[in-house]
Amino acid sequence: LRAVQVLGSMRHSAFLPHAAAQLVRIIQDKTRLNWKGEVDYELSRVRMAAATSLKTILSQVKGDVPGLDEPMRQLYRDWQEGDVAKLIDRADHPDAMIRALAVYALGDLHTKEAIEELIRLFQDPVVDSATRWAVTDALTRLSPTTTIFRVIMPLVDEDMAALTNVPAEIWERREEWYAAIAYLIGTLEEQDP
Length: 193
Fold this sequence. Notes:
This protein is mainly alpha-helical. 63% of the residues lie in helices and 4% in strands. It has 12 helices and 2 strands, in the order H-H-E-E-H-H-H-H-H-H-H-H-H-H. The protein has helices at 2-9, 16-28, 45-58, 70-81, 84-90, 96-109, 112-123, 129-139, 144-152, 158-163, 168-172, 178-187; strands at 30-33, 39-41. The chain has a two-stranded antiparallel sheet with strand order 1-2. The longest helix has 14 residues, at 45-58.
């Protein structure tokens, strides 16, 4: 994680294209086996750190970055400009990598609209597993209070579910979210008494 963050902090112009290319590789390469035994994207904090680091240095890179195609370049422009509406649209992109990056960007921006979309996506029963895990990672960027009261508690406490208008269908299927909820609980920096 630290090495990826260091790549994002590089400022020497001759090194930036190489750093950007390496960050793109970390983001785009499928490096892990998923629960089905298939090669899949790394959906960890390392990938999120690589995405954030690339955002930091991309505007300083002169010329093309190997592996950075136009959809990804446009996503980074939207992220740098804080265009939440376009990032929300990209959260439904056919490419799983673009969806993951879009939700990471929403988590990074922390606007009310971005947070609401992350919560909606997290609770959406038809969101694919890869996107839900990317959303789960993005939710770790929120404050512990928001994570506890807007994301975790509505899926574990019936009163909070009613208070936050969790649909009955989702409440009945809440066990499908327990692995992601356990992950979120494990990432909380503060404990709620």
